[in-house]
Design goal:
Strand content: 15-25%
Distance between the termini: 40 Å
Strand order of the largest sheet: 3-4-12-11-10-9-7-8-6-5
Oligomer: single chain
Radius of gyration: 20 Å
Length: 375
């Protein structure tokens, strides 16, 4: 389901300030395409023209031309698929969650005549087995899996596309293997810092969605509400399967009810799917309890220098409650070279019209860069 386009708001004109080298840069500029977009590019007018002229509509769905399973450890086997142009430029779609898995609609962000589109389900998610398994399931395992898949498919280098947790893993993978990445499109930035987890799971987002929060909160007895992430861990790992399912449904519905600027009933219903919810909730909780298995709270920001040279677009919904804009802003400040696109009439989901348009446009921009290199 697509959300209706919101009416544009009126904002003051952009202001110009000199950067450290005396060049002028725009702080914020508002313009209307078919949604409202805030933008902070370095070369403002050139980039605005570039983004206005490219395609911004989803491509028709295509079916995979090949698919399979790759054994990546003595426990885990991953599902993967390829669609689009077998001789095209490779792009790997890194799904969210963790635990969310992929779906056919994920292929539609990419021009199937230009891109060789690779989707895969991370450990324990989607069609990968064993389902909802937490053993041997860390960020570093997933980074190794991406490399194993790249080598299995005999791809020298590829473009990285990821949103939400997919932006986290996309950043971590690219910082670990910058020579294998030709470009990046990142959406709904999640840096897996304590303040981000606390915001969403310990009462911050509840100020905006108190109605949705009640069901999430009320599953936990009052004497365990000092840390909801820990309380849910106990239930999601219970020996009683029904307790697991109950916690998984509550955990998943909380996120699904807050993922769009306007309620999306189709998305909310995913919380009723016990199989999906169990993997989504168990794996998310496992990663969040363990702080993403990252060495420090600011690890992804601290290592931006490793990927500073990579052509990247960051797309962020202004009213993203799941992954609030503070994280995208912090990444933008650490990495001003990346193109930063703020969609003013959107929340978290990649399926909101404004965010969808910016994601497609970002892929088109990278496509044109690659094409122009060949001329």
């Amino acid at each position: 389901m697509l959300l209706p386009t919101l009416s544009p708001l009126t904002y003051p004109p952009h202001s110009w300030v000199p950067d450290s080298q005396g060049r002028k840069s725009a702080i914020i500029r508002m313009h209307k395409v078919d949604h409202t977009i805030e933008s902070t590019p370095v070369n403002l007018m050139a980039r605005e023209q570039e983004f206005t002229e490219v395609n911004r509509n989803l491509y028709p769905n295509v079916e995979p031309y090949s698919a399979g399973f790759l054994k990546v450890s003595d426990i885990h086997t991953l599902y993967w698929e390829q669609s689009g142009n077998p001789n095209g430029h490779p792009v790997v779609f890194i799904h969210g969650g963790p635990g969310g898995g992929t779906g056919p609609s994920n292929r539609k962000f990419f021009d199937p005549e230009f891109y060789r589109i690779i989707l895969f389900d991370q450990r324990g998610a989607g069609k990968s087995t064993p389902h909802a398994c937490l053993e041997q399931n860390t960020t570093w395992d997933l980074i190794d899996d991406i490399e194993k898949l790249r080598e299995h498919l005999q791809i020298p280098e590829w473009q990285v596309f990821g949103g939400s947790w997919g932006s986290t893993l996309g950043l971590a993978y690219s910082q670990s293997h910058p020579d294998k990445v030709t470009g990046m499109v990142l959406r709904g930035i999640f840096l897996l810092r304590k303040k981000e987890i606390d915001w969403f799971y310990e009462g911050g987002a509840a100020a905006i969605f108190p109605d949705a929060w009640e069901s999430f909160r009320d599953l936990i007895p009052e004497n365990e509400r000092g840390c909801f992430v820990d309380a849910y861990k106990k239930r999601l790992n219970s020996d009683d399967v029904e307790i697991q399912y109950g916690a998984a449904r509550a955990w998943t519905k909380w996120e699904m009810m807050t993922a769009h600027l306007l309620p999306n009933e189709e998305n909310i219903k995913r919380g009723d799917d016990d199989k999906f919810s169990l993997a989504f909730a168990r794996i998310e909780n496992h990663y969040f309890v363990n702080k993403g298995f990252l060495p420090s709270d600011s690890y992804l920001l601290d290592n931006v220098d490793k990927i500073r040279h990579i052509n990247t677009t960051i797309v962020q919904g202004r009213y993203d409650v799941c992954c609030p804009m503070m994280s995208a802003w912090d990444l933008h400040k650490a990495w001003p070279e990346a193109d930063f696109r703020v969609v003013a009439d959107a929340g978290h989901s990649a399926n909101e019209p404004g965010i969808t348009a910016e994601l497609v446009a970002a892929n088109e921009k990278l496509k044109n860069i690659i094409k122009n290199k060949g001329n």
